[in-house]
From TrEMBL:
InterPro entries xrefs: ATPase_NBD (IPR043129)
Domain of life of the source: Eukaryota
Lineage summary: Eukaryota, Fungi, Dikarya, Basidiomycota, Agaricomycotina
Protein name according to UniProt: Actin-like ATPase domain-containing protein
Length: 590
């Protein structure tokens, strides 16, 4: 395990990582004391938990008819709460995290149809904020009650400097990060200003899991690659890494990260389909939700072998129907049937691992499995057998794999093990290009008259960053552009597009057009530079202005940033910061 350095700051601080999962959520933290080596600790006590506590609570909320939160987390499992919720017709909200998923994500239709709607007048950001507010309150209480010598005084001294690390699936990007940031501000984690928002950081679940594994004894040879599989409730996140510098424990991503919707909830949903078919038209038909819940909470976790039957205990001694394999309040299910519930998730993981291995720049022989779903003995054994046939070994860390993301989120901030990442998509902007009469693509599209007097072809995609390129944290990607206008520009806006298709060198946005989407929008105040521009005249005698600028992309950590820069007093200065996801706008004359 690497030796962490003492905290180099001059005043106390706190790092708080919050892992909001599809089914379960948790928090970890680290106290930052000047000159002291930080330690990572988990929040292990939440309201309504059984004695002994746990590092996770259900990602579930109850709202009353007025839209007020009435119960959260472990509170939603109390019999009194369930009874009151039924009597007063509260709305149960679960799987709300999936409402944030990218529109381009390939959510299986059967799950897409079963994602519960949100309460009236509540957006997913509202629900996310309510849940974050609850977790934040739980963290505060835990730290105040457990930190010695005086947790309350410590909290008061650091509360305005807390750094929050929010984790999300590998497949989530700028739009989802922007929504999570708005939810965090709405929840009161940080103020809505640049300083406050800078205290909110993001990490992918795959990268957080890597940090967790490193802190729990992971060793990798410099010529070896590994795949981290974070198997959660909703998504399976895969990331491939290798050591770039053994002396400093620096890792580099060697393949594009992947995210597939094949987590443990899909096993439960497969079981529900089976129960509904088997019990349709019987007196137990109304018990399907209860039977499914019991399967999810016990049978699914205990299942080991397809050669042995499994049992779902859901009722009392009088619940008996031998023809339905129900005796003494429990249903018997053949092991081969239960194994069938797991198969879609297993297949998805195998396919994703094979794809990661194929794309990786170094040979991969090892797979590390973490996350709550990793605790399933059947799934681990099945993956071990199937991956073994591909000469891949699979391992689980010898510790609580369900807290990997929360602990790893803190380590991400403290240790910073990953030095470079791989671009998941291609990025660029829409523009025009000079018409070439000999170019068949230009002939097919025709040309238009530009302000400055040239003939140009529109719908051109100017590639700034290509998919699969390895990116270091300080690396910039920039392309030069020219902006023409009949008037002095007071501001300008550029839309950064991402291309998700298979073309390695996309050139036209009217080809494979469904694969283009807005990554972010960057705006700039150009009033000062416009005043210095010298008027020009086109062949028709009309006056126009020309602004030469660069579009700059940075992928410093796990967030895309964009800037517009121009030449001023011999220096190329950035003149704008990132503004995420306003409306799509293509500037006239770009």
């Amino acid at each position: 395990m690497p030796q962490r350095k003492p905290f180099a700051g001059t005043q106390q601080g706190l790092v708080l990582a919050i892992d909001v999962g599809t089914t379960y959520s948790g928090c970890s933290f680290s106290v930052l004391d000047p000159g002291v080596v930080p330690e990572i600790k988990g929040v292990t006590r939440f309201p309504a938990q059984a004695p002994g506590g746990s590092s996770k609570i259900p990602s579930v909320l109850y709202y009353d008819s007025a839209g007020k939160v009435r119960a959260v987390g472990a509170e939603t499992l109390l019999d009194t709460v369930i009874e009151q919720a039924e009597d007063e017709q509260w709305t149960k909200v679960e799987w709300f995290k999936l409402h944030l998923r990218p529109k381009s994500s390939k959510t299986p239709l059967r799950i897409h149809q079963q994602i519960l709607s949100l309460p009236p007048d509540k957006s997913v950001i509202d629900v996310f904020a309510d849940f974050l507010r609850y977790l934040f309150s739980c963290c505060r209480t835990f730290i105040e009650e457990t930190l010695l010598p005086d947790g309350k005084s410590f909290w008061e001294s650091v509360k305005d400097r807390i750094v929050f690390v929010l984790s999300h699936p590998n497949g989530w990007e700028g739009r989802q990060q922007s929504s999570m940031r708005r939810a965090a501000v709405l929840a009161g984690l940080a103020p809505d200003n640049p300083e406050g928002q800078n205290r909110i950081r993001f990490v992918t679940e795959g990268e957080a899991s890597l940090h967790f594994c490193i802190n729990n004894g992971l060793t990798v040879q410099e010529d070896e690659g590994i795949i981290i599989v974070d198997a959660g409730g909703g998504t399976i996140d895969l990331s491939a890494y290798s050591v770039s510098n053994a002396d400093t424990n620096a890792f580099e991503e060697i393949s594009r990260s992947e995210c597939c919707f094949a987590g443990s909830i899909f096993v439960t949903k497969e079981s529900r389909v089976y129960f509904e078919d088997k019990l349709q038209g019987t007196r137990f038909e109304e018990d399907v939700p209860r039977i499914t819940e019991c399967f999810d909470q016990t049978t699914k976790l205990q299942f080991r072998d397809s050669d042995e039957p499994s049992y779902v205990k859901f009722g009392g001694l009088r619940d008996r129907e031998p023809n339905l394999d129900i005796r003494s309040g429990q249903m018997k299910i053949p092991g081969t049937i239960v194994a069938r519930f797991f198969q879609p998730s297993v297949n998805a993981m195998l396919k994703a691992v094979v794809e990661q291995r194929r794309e990786a720049r170094k040979a991969i022989t090892t797979v590390l499995l973490v996350g709550g779903f990793a605790a399933s003995p059947f799934m681990f054994t099945k993956l071990k057998d199937d991956l073994g046939q591909l000469s891949l070994s699979i391992h689980r860390p010898d510790t609580h794999v369900n807290k990997a993301v929360a602990d790893g989120g803190v380590s991400f901030y403290l240790d910073h093990f990953v030095s470079s990442r791989v671009a998941r998509y291609s990025y660029g902007i829409e523009c025009t290009t000079i018409y070439q009469s000999s170019n068949p693509e230009h002939q097919r599209r025709g040309f238009l008259n530009s302000i400055e007097g040239s003939f140009r072809v529109k719908n051109c995609f100017s590639l700034i960053l290509r998919k699969g390129v390895q990116i270091t944290e300080l690396q910039e990607f920039r392309n030069p552009f020219v902006y023409y206008s009949y008037h002095r520009l007071q501001s300008m806006t550029e839309t950064i597009l991402e291309y998700r298709g298979i073309d390695k060198d996309p050139s036209w946005i009217d080809v494979d057009c469904n694969m283009y989407s807005t990554a972010c929008i960057v705006t700039a105040d150009t009033s000062k530079i416009s005043a210095t521009l010298v008027p020009r005249r086109n062949p028709s005698g009309y006056e126009y202005f020309q602004l030469n600028f660069d579009v700059v992309l940075l992928f410093g950590l796990t967030e895309l940033k964009a800037q517009i820069a121009w030449q001023e007093n011999v220096s190329l200065l950035p003149i704008s910061r990132l503004i995420l996801f306003i409306s799509f706008f293509v500037p006239e004359g770009s």
